[in-house]
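Lab notebook, bench 4. The sequencing result for the construct came back, and we need a structural model before the next group meeting so we can plan mutations. Quick request posted to the team channel:

Model the 3D structure of this chain.
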Amino acid sequence: MKAKTLQILWHGKEPVWSVDFHPSGFLATSGADKEIKFWDVEVDSDGFPSVRHLETLTGHSKGVNIIRFNSKGDVLASAGDAGEILLWRPTENQRPENIAASEVLENCTWKAGTSLRGHNDDVQDLSWSPDSQWILSGSVDNSAIVWDAVKGKASMRMNDHKHYVQGVAWDPAGEFLVTQSGDRTCHVYAPVLPSNTSKKQRLHGKQAFDP
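Done. Here's the predicted structure in token form:
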């Protein structure tokens, strides 16, 4: 296995705060310069990885702390120091898996179509639900919010932490949520459902969670 250090300096030499791969393989980065950038990652003729800039997304008023693609790859969520969460979608359909990123991205622009507002301070982390319908956010306002990404509205707010919510995670089975805080605790949330609810309904139906 060959390795080479790649320097990405296109964020104005500001810190790069988050990275994420699209399911089809291109790389996204974000940083203190308020921008999100897409990169085509390839292997050069010498067998080393190389990157080529494809697109820059602008729309945040402050630094972008976190970026996450949903599992389908048709929405990118980004959040930062202003407390806002932006949902970006491509102007064209999601590209097929067998087409190089550059072939489509050079003719496809991603735009922020939805803004989620509910946090009053920096958003530190994001996590998508397995079905890409919901997104969980954590903020230094000590809260976590479950958002309906389709409707663009908050579904519920969790205010159980005493300090910054620095990390959030959505269980791959869609059954549990976890929040992690500077108050030295992790909270695990499970759906509140009637005892006679079937397993299928328990996993996919209710979206109200309690610790």
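The chain has a mean pLDDT of 84.
Will bring this to the meeting.
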